[in-house]
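Bench notes, afternoon.
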Amino acid sequence: MGFNVLIVDDSAAMRRIIKKTIQVSGFDVDNFYEAGNGKEALDVLENNWVDVVLTDINMPEMDGMTLIKKIRENDVFGGVPIVVISTEARDKKVKESLELGASGYIKKPFKPEEIKNILIELMGEEYVRTDDEYKDFGETDF
């Protein structure tokens, strides 16, 4: 049984890259959900079971920082792990997101191993397939 992932980014191309990275990293995912901003993400969370959220910071309508606050305020899904994946590299923003309740932070461009490692840390190795479907990307940046 796999886990359910919500990818939140205003770039459809970046959502596809993150999804593909998770798939080829060997994770057993039941469902991928996508949202183009924080408002759409909250709608997904209200209507679906999600085990982990991967979100950008800079998005229209509702940014990632507001999304983190709204998730953490919710009694039903407030405990869902949240990983920020953003070009926002200022230490102040990283610190602020972690203080708001993000479980981890990955700066774009990222290496596939960064996503794999943080998901193992948050979700556990039991979600990593042991078959030969895993392919090592090496030093590729996304």
